[in-house]
Amino acid sequence: MENKIRALLVQNRLNSITTLEKGLFAEGISCSIEKCDFSSDVISILEKNRPDVVLINLTDNIPDAIDLCKKISTNFPEFPVIVLADEKDERAALAAMKEGADDYVLFGQIRRLAASILRAIKLHRLQTDVKKARLAEMQARRTLRQTRIAKRLLSEQTSDLICEILPNGTIAYINKPLGEGLGYSVSELLGKSPLVFVHPEDRPLALRAFREALEERKGKQMSLRCRHKNGEWRYFQLSGDWIFNEEGNPLKAVVVLRDVTDKLKVQEALELSKKYASSIINSSLDMIIAADIHRNIIEFNPAAEKTFGYKKEEVLGKPVDILYVDSSLVDEIQQILLNKGSFVREVVNVRKNGEKFVSLLSASILRDLSGKIIGMMGVARDISVEKKIQEELEKSQNQLKHLVESVNVIPWEKDSLNGRIVYIGKQVEKILGYPAERWQTPDFWESHIYPEDRNYVINYSLSSADKFDNYEIEYRIVAADGRIVWVQDIVNVERKGGIPVRLRGFMIDITTRKEIEERLRQTNLTLEALIDTSPLGIIVIDMDGVVQVWNQSAEKILGWESYEIQGKQVPVELADEIPDDFDNDNTTTLESLFYCKEKQLHRKDGSTVFTTL
To answer: What does the alpha-carbon distance between residue 89 and residue 63 come to, in Å, rounded to a whole number?
Structure first.
């Protein structure tokens, strides 16, 4: 589970947000939702609380909702906005997206809402990162420009850093700016070897250049590091040449230095900024494509290569129109960008192989440092798989709904915390006669349980929900027409922190089964009465030799009481006398299915009795 997402829900309805939070939690999003209505100062709330995403209930107040989307897009473009709407308000939802909303989701599509929230947050964060990278690059360029201006002004007002070195390698003269640049006074530097202040790694290079300039009588240029008095190593560019007397002997070397430490730092920052921006673009899982003012492609990241099937070098300089099914859509996108500065919508693209696919595009205008428009950039994601999954999910849900509603099974869901039914299938009206919405009123279910079953059912349900994750119970309910209907509840318990929070189950009409069971019970009672009152001794023995029935006449004839023999093996005295051909597995005629012979049997007391078996 990802870190908790903070959301602001703008709606006028007073219903609880717990269901929405739980629905998102079931989809893998831990979400904390703050709610306010359209009469609140939503902009101030956004500025103060800075949520991760804004959810706007369009159905409550369409004009205010659309206007709020526009205000948020204008004042806080960094906040993703998702509109919640009914099917009848889809056109208004599209209007809200044109005014700045990132997406819209129909009520009940909790899985799509979860995916839309994650996608919108990720897209906005990516856009923020890209903008930060661009701002960092702009700042680096600004700093570089300011540094150049500062150095130019400095050169106009002060002399260069100048040093004179004698042939013996000691400093004969330095100007004040050089001493100040290194943090030393002039007296601290005079008579010293300049190599003392040069970085150890640069000393061999500096000594070689010093000697080559003397031997070749030719000026030298190089870069090296010098130690500031505070211990910092400063970078300098220097140009030096020897001055000779009339005899051709060297008098001194004049070296002009320029401190380029700040320039190098700015260049390094600029390079890092470029690498950072390039790293974000190249490692992004989303397609990032940029085009110039003439709509020719100037950036095409690896994710775009993978999705479209083109190599970057294949598309650079070509019209971005080749990536769209209809070039008129590119005209529309460009016009919206020029008018509003941003564009967010699902579009139809085409791959190199001609295959069409749907993507979610978020585009914005590109400007140079002066603010001039130089092109446009889009961040897009292939959502064709998601669209297909969503369609399959909706199809499966509709099939399940049709299946459930076509059988005598009533699905239901109950809030275990307040004891109220929050959902029940419409087939309850057919089976029990009460409208589905009446079941959601307090105590409706409890009050319609058959009085003799009520206390047991309520207590058993509460106890089972505390102890078990699944349980079943059978009981009677009084239907709207007064009928007594037997039902069986098959229940699943959802827990949070070990506490039951939600019960989901199926209520099955088992009245017919109960009626059959009752008729069978009455039949068995009648059969038992006939057996017990029969003048014939009736004995039933199963295939394992265990006595199942031993009626009163059998007690009188053979002397054993039923409690002595029923459920036990046949007594040896009887078993030995039952003929071997009593059970013949090879019988094929109707007559052979019956056995009838006179037989003398032993009684319990040892006496004998003649019987017909």
So the answer is: 12
Could you read off the pLDDT of 410-467 as tens digits, one per residue?
999 999 888 899 999 888 999 999 999 999 999 999 999 999 999 999 999 999 999 9
For tokens 């994650």, name the residue. Answer: 118
Spatial CA neighbour of 422 closest among 11, 10, 105, 20: 20
Nearest CA to 190 out of 206, 221, 167, 166 is that of 166
> Cα Rg for the chain, rounded, in angstroms?
46
- Residue 192's SS3 state is coil
Strand-pairing partners, residue 242, are 253
Written as one letter, the residue type at 603 is: R
In eight-state DSSP terms, residue 160 is: P
Bridge-based pairing state of the strands 539-541 and 5-10? unpaired
> φ, ψ for residue 554 (rounded to 5)?
-65, -35
Amino acid identity, position 408? N
Tell me the one-letter amino acid at 441: T
What does the block give as tokens for 361? 């595009």
Does residue 259 contact residue 223 with C-beta atoms inside 8 Å? no
Q: Which residues contact 491 (CB under 8 A, 6 or more apart)?
A: 461, 464, 465, 470, 471, 472, 473, 503, 504, 505
- As given in the structure block, the two tokens for residue 408 are 């005598």
Roughly what angle, to the nearest 10 degrees, separates helices 261-283 and 110-157?
160
Residue whose pair of structure tokens reads 């001794």 in the numeric block: 537
- Measured between its terminal Cα atoms, the distance across the chain in Å is 76
Dump pLDDT digits (tens) for 197-255. 899 999 998 888 888 888 888 888 888 899 988 989 999 888 888 888 888 888 888 88
Q: How many CA atoms lie within 13 A of 279 on its CB side?
A: 8
Give the whole-angstrom CA distance, residue 286 versus residue 577. 90
Token code pair at residue 473: 């119970």
Calpha distance 39→10 (Å, rounded)? 10
In terms of Cβ atoms closer than 10 Å to its own Cβ (0-12, 13-18, 19+), residue 533 is: exposed
